[in-house]
Amino acid sequence: MDPQTHSRRWLRRLSLTSCAALSFISALQAGTPALSGKAPTVPVEAVSWKEHTIAPVANPFFHEDAVIRSEIRPVFVYHNIDDEFLGGGNAQLYAMQIRYAITDRLAFIATQDGYFDIQNDAIANPEGWMDLALGFKYAVIDDEASQFILTPGFTFKIPTGDREVFQGRGGGEWDLFIAAQKGFGDFHLSSNLGVRLPNNTDENSTFLHYSMMADYYTCRWFIPFVAFNAYTVLDDGNNIGLDTEGYDVINFGSSEANGVTQGTLGVGFRSRILNNVDLGFAYEKAIIEPHGLTEDRFTVDVCIRF
Questions:
Q1: Residue 286 burial (CB count, 10 A)
Q2: Diameter of the chain by CA atoms?
Q3: Domain 55-305 classified CATH 3.30.70.1450?
Q4: Contact call for residues 203 and 170 (beta carbons, < 8 A)
Q5: Where are the beta strands (DSSP E) in 102-235?
Q6: 74-97 pLDDT tens trace
Q7: Calpha distance 161→159 (Å, rounded)
Q8: What pLDDT does residue 39 have?
Q9: Quick one: DSSP state of residue 82?
Q10: What residue ranges do the domains of the chain occupy?
Q11: What is the pLDDT of residues 246-295, one digit of tens each?
């Protein structure tokens, strides 16, 4: 065999071998996914706008939160009584609230209980247990995209308290309310409008109560707010000859308070000291004459969510 023929055969074999190798590599690439230098992306769950909202601190009994949460909330209130109301004085309230989310829309709420200590010489410095208030609330609108929630609800105040601190009277009292909250990013507006309907309209007065709060989530450690709370007597009682009423804590059943409005303006903040624990502080000042029972007051609470 001459050298030229041998060279042609060698080149033919090399070409066939190269084609086979290329075909094998192509088949492997077609059947095997391409490897990436980056780790696969894990989907990130969207954070609800409600994660940055806070429960009201001022007016804890009647500014019920629109958001459905499970929580235990110890509350302490130090209350300065206006000097023109039976000579003034002060009062301390120690309470524990409980809320339990049965579903993501329905919650059981226990909004009032506790011990009340009044320092006022004109009424012999009484102290005793508060009435117990229980009820439910249901979020009829919970629009995540629009950052809006609307929650009606009710409580019934059972007259289990001591008459010495103006509790345990009147056969009980209903509170029918509508709570709402709207978010604008980290700025939130919340409100509550309700009516207090006593079973015995001689022993207790009938109230309209309304609350507003604006808060801004600056960071978890400092969430400031401003709040307004007011109470208008729709139908006075016939229990005691006063021309004012007892704001959120006491329903005197005053006989000369029909049409009277009393209100406070408050400021404060919450601090999210743990992911499920909020510390709250509020200062309120009476701003509508007659001040009646309230000069000013301080409220401290802790929301422990579960």
A1: 20
A2: 134
A3: no
A4: yes
A5: 106-112, 115-119, 127-129, 132-138, 141-143, 148-158, 173-184, 187-198, 206-216, 223-235
A6: 999 999 999 999 999 999 999 999
A7: 6
A8: 52
A9: P
A10: 1-30, 55-305
A11: 999 999 999 999 999 999 999 999 999 999 999 999 999 999 999 999 99
